[in-house]
Amino acid sequence: MGDIDDLPKNKANHTALTPLWFLERAATVHPTRTSLIHGSLRYTWLDTYRRCRRLASALSNHSIGLGSTVAVIAPNTPAMYEAHFGVPMSGAVINAVNIRLNAATIAFLLGHSKSEVVMVDQEFFPLAEEALKIMAESKTPFKPQLLIVIADSSCDPDVLGHALARGAVEYEKFLATGDPEFPWQPPEDEWQSIGLGYTSGTTASPKGVVLSHRGAYLMSLSNPIIWGMTEGPVYLWTLPMFHCNGWCFTWSLAALCGTNICLRQVTAKAVYSAIANEGVTHFSAAPVVLNSIVNAPKEDTILPLPCVVHVTTAGAAPPPSVLFSMAEKGFRVTHTYGLSETYGPSVVCAWKPEWDALPPITQARLNARQGVRYVGLEGLDVVDPKTMKPVPADGTTMGEIVMRGNMVMKGYLKNPKANAESFAGGWFHSGDLAVKHPDGYIEIKDRSKDIIISGGENISSVEVENILYTHPAVFEVSVVARPDERWGESPCAFVTLKPEVDNSNEQRLAEDIIKFCREKMPRYWVPKSVVFGPLPKTATGKIQKHILRAKAKEMGPIPKSKL
């Protein structure tokens, strides 16, 4: 090897990668710059750094550190943001909990993760209390050693009084017990865990996704590189911070010394208001949120936008029609794709300058593809899941999306079987089916479990949905398989109508939608049944297809006599 490779690592030239250093730098470089806005509340980066060190110190005073897990049940508030730094600064792991889960599921998460501390927003204390009761009465009872309630003046004051009477400590009082100059230390090993998040658990118990300091660091820097995000952005939190730690933007904003605008409840009116009043430059959201923005009532919008607003979207394949409408309104949308297991989005539909000259609808169609790997992801491909051989880049042959590299999770907590399956063949298996185009960009066609097989032919529910989204009456749509006596399965469309649409004659509307489909798609793709009503969603805006599949099954099979 020679002398050139004999130089050892030392403290001067090697340290574990961690996004925690970003906060220290922000407080040093821009101590008086606004770090966080929440209603009338304003913090600077120095304020935020001192508060996060107080949190780390207060946790350490209760022997919370390496090996501990701290669960946080809260919406997008300052405390939730601070927990992303303060918890790992103590050496512990942050478990940001989905606030839309029911008490039984939260009880499972808290018990499975052995969360020694539960921080809960005042609004969600009744939910947490019910979950803790379920845990206490289970076969393997577990009780956290510390319960912290985050007070909020917009919530029922009686709930706060009840929480304190139950032994909870109020968050600000807890912070007051900590040292704002707490001498936190980075992890000795960057493979140390920084975060724990749980998958939706739609077919079994949720799986705990474990993330490392190294992966979080790399994702935090990949985000702005991919997005062209420069120093000092004003970022609106429309994306839940509990979802993949806010796609790691919690840490990215500190790296860029930007401003976080917390949004407790996400509405189109609140988004437009923040753009007008706070100078928002960036936000991230699932396609369902974009859909609400483009269909917002005129009185809730502020158009034209005062400046170009950059948007990243992920969580589901966005319909080209929604991307087109967002562009028309002045939003510049970057389409990304990823999973909880890849720290959030790790694939991007990288925009090419030559697309600028194309018609807007063509641009939207190209931008609806999932794209190419992030700069921080080392491997991405579409393969035959049986042979692991890459599919041809012909835009038609389907395979499974697989990834590998530093932005893939450490693994699932206490689940060796799932780890073996997910990492088979040296790749992480996404479970998403896609094609690879000649230019190397991948495009999702469906989840493997969502493909509809009708008469032996595969039907992509995503492609049927994209066409249905262009119908003038359709606000939201999800297509799933319904049993069919003749074909085995056939598409069933669950539709939410736009508010202004007259729904007094649903049979006529259903017939009109089916006629529309016959003119736009192959006959075997056409939904044989249309069901109207609101669509069940997760907290991050994903439509819960497993619920719709169950409903379609309950409806019974389509009889052979029906065309």
Automatic annotation (TrEMBL):
Annotated localization: Cytoplasm, Cytosol
Keyword hit for ATP-binding: yes
Coiled-coil regions listed: none
The keyword Ligase appears for this protein: yes
Residues annotated as domain AMP-binding enzyme C-terminal: 463-542
Source organism superkingdom: Eukaryota
Any one GO molecular-function label of the UniProt entry: propionate-CoA ligase activity
Keywords associated with the record: ATP-binding, Ligase, Nucleotide-binding
Residue ranges of domain AMP-dependent synthetase/ligase in the record: 23-413
InterPro entries, per database record: AMP-bd_C, AMP-bd_C_sf, AMP-dep_synth/lig_dom, ANL_N_sf
Pfam families the UniProt entry points to: AMP-binding, AMP-binding_C
Gene Ontology CC terms: cytosol
Database matches in SUPFAM superfamilies: Acetyl-CoA synthetase-like (SSF56801)
Main location: cytoplasm
Family indicated by similarity: Belongs to the ATP-dependent AMP-binding enzyme family.
Annotated NCBIfam families: PRK08162.1 (NF006020)
Cross-referenced PANTHER family: ACETATE_BUTYRATE--COA LIGASE AAE7, PEROXISOMAL, ACYL-ACTIVATING ENZYME
Name of the molecule in the record: Acyl:activating enzyme 2
Higher taxonomy: Eukaryota, Viridiplantae, Streptophyta, Embryophyta, Tracheophyta
